[in-house]
Design goal:
This protein has 15 helices and 20 strands. By secondary structure, the protein is α/β, with parallel strands linked by helices. A 9-stranded mixed sheet has the order 3-4-5-2-1-8-9-13-14, with helices on both faces. Strands 17-16-15-18-19-20 form a 6-stranded parallel sheet, sandwiched between helices. The radius of gyration is 23 Å and the shape is globular.
Length: 467
């Protein structure tokens, strides 16, 4: 049996403690899956306002130096599913209304906030949890590999340690102006085009790309799509696409306590009860014979939500209901509210994110819509397959890797016409109830659990460490 490794993840969020999107789901599920393989695993993340923990302080005043700034961080620990979650408590940086922004926009000191997270992770690695592998996630942790290689190259504490950097979404790069450099404990010479320099400033994501030993992203197709990006192209040889997994402990209709009635591939009858309960909850007519299309999404142009706005009036003329849950771009929120007002018997919209309602949408809908402009991996299409809720998706990124013509409906062109054609095909297929049931059962049989993904990370860790 291969020896266990010590793996330290660094990220800005992790479910169930702090969540704005799929990154949190990954950090809530991948570390426990690695722990099940026998590894010792810890996760470093900020302690934001609203994170309620039991009395768990293990370090009172850990010094964290960032440029001219000195912060004394409390370190709190919670053990969950065999994983040590280590929270960096610096109230001046993290005790705020939002994780990345408030009503006025992005926090102007985000570069300091997440540089401090990276420095705190290195300090935790020295004094609390000494890892074989540092695994940094997205731009917020992009400085971890740079600090290790530039500041601690001669430190025997970290001899043999390797850095893996995962890009969850290339659309967010952590770019800051050159004026941020003095705040970051960095030699300005590193801000050159072959280092972390971008357009006269610096990119935290580029720092992770350049200084890591290996780069991963969240699906094989997304890896192929982004390897030509000028930021990544010189480092494409380090890039691997490892598909994210679904947490079936949380998302499975056989065990889901949040839905109106549990069901399984062996007995689908209660899915009808879930549909009726969802329609009642959202104030739509309880018509079990007509299909329901669900959306759970950031209301963002990346997610193709403007295509939904364009197609919705056509959709409202058909025997189908549309339910949407999400928040995001203010203009799109207004558009979605307008759709619900214009078609109150066909379209229901809830602005915001509600975990309980998200589960009920997955269980109660017949189809799930994800018309993304790009989608690094996506998780909701995996959840939908498990719930027998057939996805209608654009064939990009992880959507192309997980949805097949036998289990869903795909379109390629990024247009309202292509979306409408795919929805039309799904509505036509729904009329053949026997064939639809076969599709549901095949979808529910697909296994996108974290087990396979964790084993791929295990192999990657061993390869980069020489084990």
């Amino acid at each position: 049996m291969d020896p266990a490794m010590r793996v330290l993840h660094v990220a800005s969020e992790a479910a169930p403690f702090a969540k704005t999107g799929g990154l949190a789901d990954v950090l809530g599920a991948l570390p426990p899956a690695l722990a099940k393989l026998g590894h010792e695993v810890a996760v470093v993340l900020p302690r934001y306002r609203g994170v309620v923990l039991p009395r768990s302080r293990i370090w009172d005043a850990l010094p964290v130096h960032v440029g001219p700034h000195l912060f004394l961080a409390g370190i709190d620990e919670v053990v969950r599913q065999g994983v040590r979650y280590l929270f960096v408590d610096i109230p001046a940086l993290y005790d705020r209304a939002g994780i990345y922004y408030d009503s006025t926009g992005d926090y102007p000191d985000n570069h300091i906030r997440f540089a401090a997270l990276a420095q705190a992770a290195v300090a935790i690695a020295r004094y609390i949890f000494r890892p074989d592998i540092f695994h940094a996630h997205d731009w917020q942790a992009g400085l971890v590999p740079l600090y290790l290689r530039e500041h601690f190259a001669g430190d025997p504490t970290f001899f043999g340690s390797r850095c893996v950097f995962t890009i969850h979404n290339m659309g967010y790069r952590g770019n800051f102006p050159a004026s941020a450099i003095p705040d970051l404990s960095l030699d300005p010479a590193l801000a050159n085009p072959s280092g972390l320099g971008v357009d006269g400033g610096v990119s935290f994501l580029k720092a992770g790309v350049v200084w890591s030993d290996a780069i991963t992203t969240v699906s094989p197709t997304y890896a192929r799509e982004i390897q030509v990006d000028p930021l990544l192209a010189p480092h494409a040889a380090k890039l691997t696409g490892i598909l994210n997994g679904a947490d079936y402990d949380e998302w499975s209709p056989e065990t889901d306590w949040r839905i109106a009635a549990r069901y399984s591939a062996d007995d689908l009858s209660n899915k009808r009860e879930c549909k009726l309960a969802l329609l009642r909850e959202l104030g739509l007519p309880p018509d079990p014979g007509s299909p329901v299309i669900g959306i759970i999404s950031r209301l963002a142009y990346q997610k193709g939500m403007e295509l939904v706005v364009e197609v919705a009036p056509w959709l409202a003329r058909h025997e189908v209901s549309l339910v949407a849950l999400g928040s995001g771009d203010a203009a799109l929120e207004t558009e979605f509210r307008g759709l619900a007002s214009a078609h109150p018997s066909k379209i229901a919209v809830r602005i915001g994110y509600h975990e309980m309602l998200a589960h009920r949408v997955e269980a109660g809908a017949d189809m799930f819509l994800m018309p993304s402009r790009y989608e690094p991996c996506g998780l909701n299409q995996m959840y939908s397959l498990r719930y027998g809720t057939l996805p209608i998706v654009r064939a990009t990124g992880g959507l192309a890797d997980t949805v097949a013509p036998e289990t869903g409906f795909l379109f390629r062109d990024y247009s309202a016409e292509a979306l409408a054609s795919a929805v039309g095909a799904a509505l036509e297929a729904y009329r053949d109830r026997d064939d639809w049931t076969k599709r549901m059962l095949l979808a529910m049989s697909k296994d996108f659990s974290w087990n396979a993904s964790a084993r791929e990370f295990d192999r990657l860790y061993r390869r980069v460490s020489g084990a």
